[in-house]
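Researcher: Last one for today. Full complex below.
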Amino acid sequence: MLINVLEVPAGGLEEAIRSWEAARDLLARQPGHVSTRLHQAMAPGARFQFVNVALWESPEAFAEAMRRMQADLRTPPPAGPAFFPALYRVVRE
Amino acid sequence: MLINVLEVPAGGLEEAIRSWEAARDLLARQPGHVSTRLHQAMAPGARFQFVNVALWESPEAFAEAMRRMQADLRTPPPAGPAFFPALYRVVRE
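Model: Here's the assembly. Have a good evening.
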């Protein structure tokens, strides 16, 4: 499971969504992509306004897709939101 | 959906799991609790080593459970991990 925690500067919500949508449009076409959901905090004061949770068929499929995205982005990622994507597995329930 | 992002100091993984388990044991008994899963980053260098994702019947049920947990904790929460719990809803897929 890919969990991507976004730290968004004040006033940067719309830009963060646009950045996320641009990345989603590209990543969703990559082999091994299963699903993705962008979650927004219900409280405006939450430290992390957005958390994206995506499912991939394998860590390798995700790594390859990220490699392609970085190579494909003609323009550098916007300065606004800070992204912290990482692969996770369930360790306790 | 409750997403709780944990920032864990170096060497603090075991303590973070113990803290999480203590809170889970109490919260899981509260009315309205549905499920909870603790996710650990597969890469040791990930900024956020743990992300907990829990389902509650309503935001109110979660808020009441948190109120009880804070009142019930005889000892202050350990200094180790920093917890950033917040309620989220899906805004894009």
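The radius of gyration of chain B is 13 Å. The interface with chain A takes residues 1, 3, 5, 17, 20-21, 24, 35-43, 46-48, 51, 53, 59, 84, 86-93 of chain B (CB under 8 Å).
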